[in-house]
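dude i think i finally got it to work??
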Amino acid sequence: TVYCRAVLDTAEGSDAVYAISADAEGESDERIARMLLEQMMEAPGEACESPLPEGTRILELSIDDGLAVVDLSEEYAGLSGMDLTVADACITLTLCQLPAVERVSVLAEGEPLPYRERESM
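look at this
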């Protein structure tokens, strides 16, 4: 499953995050995680869209001792408020499905966001 930003309609009570089926195979957890995030960024479907700003790229992704570290391009650093919360939720929900991932840390250009209270989710 890949989690994306839901395209909200006018009905009250809609969820902000929408789950879609995904296929990912690879020789390593990092490769599978990258494939899932790439599918999340493409957000195929009428009911969902990418939670990340257009042009965002995955610069690096590693998984070590249960921690997935995702380094995204500078576009991610432009997110704030609810947009940042939804993006982080989509990334975390998507990656924590992998048995090797217990926590997720998201960086922008190799640096944590300065206003983030926690280093990992």
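The beta strands are 2-6, 17-20, 48-49, 58-64, 67-72, 103-108.
im so relieved honestly
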